[in-house]
Amino acid sequence: MLIDIQHLHTSSLQDDFQSALYQIFMFENSAKFSVDFSNYSSAAYSLVFLSPYQHFKWQGTTPAFIIKLEFHGDFYCIEYHKKEVACNGLLFNNIYLTPFVTISPILFTEIKTIFNKIEVEKDGGSPFSESVLKSYLQLVLALCSKEKSLQLVHTDVYQNELTVSLKFQELLESAFLFERSVQFYADELALGVDSFSKKVKKELGKSPSQFIQDRVVLEAKKMLHLTYLSVKEIAAKLQFEDEFYFSRYFKKNVGISPSGFRERVGISIAAK
């Protein structure tokens, strides 16, 4: 099945793991966890969103049962449905935002009910099940995208256009293909490396070097999933010396080779 619901105990999540699927975790209680080796704490009634081959590890000390929804990109392509849901770059695939959203108990219960409906429908065997399941999934993504976008409006970092973090984000988006040293970004913002690094870490929770690495990896994942370019061509576009260096870099940070990632995640129907 290309979509599934699992009921898990947190004891099964204490070792770092990855999946070729998109994953959504529901945490009814407060939680501590890491995503791509960055630590997070979420309040009760939170949902965590993971793209294929992101690293996840449970770090909470209180045992709990959680619900996980997972789906393959071939079942529901978030790039293809971006106009309907707008979750790509909001819930998934945004290195600057926290990978979770905290919602009201009422909305949490509503989404939990949809999860239950998905669980029942996927075992029903109806010829209409796939369409129904996609509609349920799209509703979950739309509700969470709406909530997260509303919350971002009230986030201090995004209210103040003059923050170092926003300037760094804009600069990184325009320069990451060619400039990968923290010194370059600090110089461009007229700050010392230490001062720059502390400001970014304080405002966004990760160091500039981690953001630079994450941005390169994210672009590599996009090219592997959203284009028909060969690994060699992708390496060249990302300014790596050769495809072998790129493959080592990708595997070190993602845990799987570029060709392995493409094989398991697949090439999107939105690929160009």
Indicate the topology.
Elements (H helix, E strand, L loop, with lengths): L2 E7 L12 E6 L3 E5 L2 E5 L3 E5 L5 E3 L6 E7 L10 H4 L14 E3 L2 H18 L6 H25 L2 H4 L4 H12 L6 H7 L4 H12 L3 H19 L4 H7 L5 H12 L3 H8 L7
Antiparallel strand pairs: 1-7, 2-5, 2-7, 3-4, 3-6, 5-8
Helix pairs in contact: 2-3, 6-7, 8-11, 9-10
The CATH class name of the largest domain reads Mainly Beta
Q: What's the helical proportion of residues?
A: 40-55%
Number of domains: 2
Query: Could you give the count of β-strands?
Result: 8
Residue-averaged pLDDT, rounded?
92
Question: Would you identify the regions where 5 or more consecutive residues have pLDDT less than 50?
Answer: none
Distance between the termini: 27 Å
User: How do the strands line up in the largest sheet?
Assistant: 1-7-2-5-8
CATH superfamily of the largest domain: Regulatory protein AraC
Give me the strand/helix succession: EEEEEEEHEHHHHHHHHHH
Which strand-content bin applies to the residues? 15-25%
Overall body shape: globular
Spell out the key features of this protein.
globular, three-stranded antiparallel sheet, 15% strand, 272 residues, alpha+beta, five-stranded antiparallel sheet, Arc Repressor Mutant, subunit A
Descriptive overview:
There is one protein chain. The protein has 272 residues and is an alpha+beta fold. It folds into two domains: 3-154, Sandwich (Jelly Rolls); 160-265, Homeodomain-like (Arc Repressor Mutant, subunit A). Helix content is 47%, strand content 15%. It contains eleven helices and eight strands. It has helices at residues 82-85, 105-122, 129-153, 156-159, 164-175, 182-188, 193-204, 208-226, 231-237, 243-254, 258-265, and strands spanning 3-9, 22-27, 31-35, 38-42, 46-50, 56-58, 65-71, 100-102. A five-stranded antiparallel sheet has the order 1-7-2-5-8, covered by helices on one side. Strands 4-3-6 form a three-stranded antiparallel sheet, with no helix packed on it. Strand 3 (31-35) and strand 4 form a beta hairpin. Helix 2 runs antiparallel to helix 3 and helix 9 (231-237) packs across helix 10 (243-254). 27% of the residues are buried.
